[in-house]
Specification:
The protein is α/β, with parallel strands linked by helices. Helices cover 42% and strands 18% of the residues. It contains eleven helices and 13 strands. Strands 3-2-1-4-5-6-11 form a seven-stranded parallel sheet, sandwiched between helices. Strands 7-10 form a two-stranded parallel sheet. Helix 1 links the parallel strand 1 and strand 2. Helix 1 crosses helix 8, helix 3 packs parallel to helix 5 and helix 7 runs parallel beside helix 9. It starts with a strand and ends in a 6-residue tail after the last helix. 47% of the residues are buried.
Length: 298
């Protein structure tokens, strides 16, 4: 089959492309402007595969994206490209709206013109209140765009709402770093782990392999395609303090930021519609990852 992954240079995108390329009959095109949180190690590996190609293009550039999609004519588009993370969206609201909302409209319009499936990467930040920050708002807008195109134009689209993703090759520095990535980087550099607020905010941490697999199952399932919203999360959660304790080392508490107090996925639809089950628990993963990185508890 032929697939396009937008944002394929990012953390989740790289894992999804790797999964798709495991089948030698699949051809994958990656559309990514390579500005934010790109994963050079994975990209270098992909370039060795003749079934993979990269187009350095911004999804907001309708004409450029149109040319790629019309020439390639994919069976499905996995739309992951977005300006991610809550805190950076406060500094760049206009760009966040442009990329996350208008970019999604571009993908849906071009997909429906060639009768391609779409799997849209939603965000659990919606549950913290869509109007509390530009990122959550625009990811919700993207969902609504997908539903609109499904209802009016019969676009085959499903919406996978990801819950706090972690795993190998996560972002550990900069504005787009995950909390686990930040802790890892601080620990390796023998720095104090910084915890915002009281650390009792809870997240449904879900491994990136399970996230990538859910995307693949959504593309293949004959039970979805009408704009269904499907939570992709473990259906259990851990506090930030719990994660810090797993990593180990001294901690310091800093000023809180605007964020949801708790996320917890009801993954019933994922099980029923996709046949998806989470396979990796964070308590099992952290010790293995620390060993892989040669991080030892004192």
């Amino acid at each position: 089959m032929k697939f396009i992954v937008t944002g394929g240079a990012g953390f989740i995108g790289c894992h999804l492309i790797n999964l798709l390329l495991e089948n030698i009959d699949n051809t994958v095109v990656n559309i990514d402007k390579l500005t934010y949180a790109s994963n050079e190690r994975s990209l270098n590996d992909f370039e060795k595969n003749s079934n993979y190609s990269l187009h350095k293009v911004d999804i907001v550039d309708y004409q450029c994206v149109k040319k790629i999609i019309n020439n390639f004519k994919p069976d499905a588009i996995f739309h992951l490209a977005a300006l991610a993370r809550i805190q950076p969206s406060f500094d760049n609201p206009l760009e966040t709206i442009s990329v996350n909302a208008q970019g999604t409209a571009n993908i849906c319009e071009l997909a429906r013109r060639i009768d391609s499936k779409v799997v849209y990467a939603g965000s659990s930040s919606f549950y913290g209140g869509a109007y509390l920050n530009p990122y959550a708002f625009t990811k919700w807008q993207g969902e609504e765009v997908c539903k609109l195109f499904s209802k009016i134009y019969n676009l085959s689209v499903s919406i996978a709402r990801f819950f706090n993703v972690y795993g190998d090759r996560h972002v550990s520095t900069g504005a787009y770093a995950t909390v686990i990535g930040i802790f890892e980087n601080q620990y390796k550099n023998q720095e104090v782990l910084t915890i915002t607020g009281d650390g009792e905010q809870r997240r449904d941490f879900t491994h990136v392999f399970d996230i990538a697999n859910a995307n693949y199952l959504a593309m293949n399932s004959n039970k979805v395609g009408k704009g269904e919203v499907i939570n992709i999360g473990n259906s259990d959660n851990r506090s930030v303090n719990d994660i810090a304790n797993m990593i180990g080392g001294p901690k310091v508490f800093v000023d809180p930021v605007i964020e949801p107090r708790e996320t917890l996925a009801d993954n019933t639809k994922a099980k029923e519609l996709l046949g998806w089950e989470p396979t990796i628990e964070i308590e099992d993963w952290v010790p293995k990852y620390k060993k892989q990185l040669k991080i030892k508890d004192e």
